[in-house]
Structure formats: C-alpha cells, structure tokens
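User
Please review the sequence:
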Amino acid sequence: MEIGNWVPQVFYDLIGRIIPGASLLLLGFIFLQDTNQAKDILAYLFQKSGVPAPTLFIIGLLISYLVGTLLGAVGLAISFREWSTGKLNEIHATPPKGADQKYDKGHISYMYDAIQIHSPTAGSRLAKLRAETHMCRVLMIGFVILLVLFAYKNRVTWNTAYYQIVLVSFVLGIFSTYFFHVHLELRARSLLVNSWHLLKNPPVDRGKP
C-alpha cells in the first residue's frame, strides 16, 4: 500500500478520534477525581504498576481512539446523518450548463470517493474537514457526559463559584463545538459540490490556443 493512501486516514484518526478522546479523558481525570485520588492513580501507573512509560503511552492512545470512535458514533446516531442530513438536500448545485441538480445519499458517497481518487488535493481538504467535524461530534457528546457526571458528583457544592464556573465552561464548550460543527459541515458540502463540478467541467485554460 502506498504511503499516500493511508496518510489521510491516519490524519483523520488523529484529529477526529485520538485528540478529542485524549482531551476528554484528561478533562474527566481533572474534574471528576479528587486531588488525593488523582495522586494515587498517577503514582500507581508510573511507579507501582511496573508498566514501561512507552507502553502506557500506547495504551493511552488506544483508549483515546476507542473513546473518540464510540462517542463520535453516538453523536452521529443522535443528531446527524453523515453526508445526508436535511440541510444537504437543500443544496442545489448549478453546473455551467445550467442543469439544476440535487444529490442523494448514494450520490454524495460516490462523489466523495471520486474526488479522493481523481483530485488528491481536494480529497485531502475534504478528509481534513470530515476529521474536524468528527472531532466536534466527539467533543460535543463528551462535554455533555462530563457536564452530567460533574454536576451529579459535586451536587452538594452546587452553590460554589467553582461549581458554577465549571458548569458554564462545559455548556459553552457544547455550544461552541456545535456551531463549529455546523460551519464545517456546510464548508465540506460546498467543497464537495464545487470539486465535483470542477472534475466534470474542468476550467478552460484561455492562455492556450
């Protein structure tokens, strides 16, 4: 297998799954553990467990990947249908010949695969946008889960400033990732349609006879 064939997928996994998964695990460790509990866990992992640091790093990557994959799937099942949402059906593409066209789910998948093969540059940009949208879904669902767990665990101290600040921060995280997801989805769909028409109707080089 050529390197160019698997690099986009590794890039997708890194941005869309591993980074958000690791971020959520870190936030959960910070906000859901008491200080003494956190110290005990760290002391056990790095001093008493006997597991080498590189092995712990690899295990952390695998767990982060698993968390990012599962939460991304949950977010997709709850709120979105990848490449076939209602908003997608509202996109009307107008090719140079003037034929108005809508794209269904199957056509969208075919367009994406064709662009990946025939226009690697545009395909890489699409892969990056899809990875970022997946990252937003993972963070959105993760923030909701952390919000609920934190609120329940610290319900006795609900009237403290720390409690209120953390809750507001999670709420802001949920809304900001949602709005960023909408922006990325719209941008990715526009890029998909534009790239498809450019492949079907490449621009004429006026400088050549």
Q: What stands out?
A: Helices lie at 3-32, 35-48, 53-79, 86-89, 105-118, 120-153, 161-200.
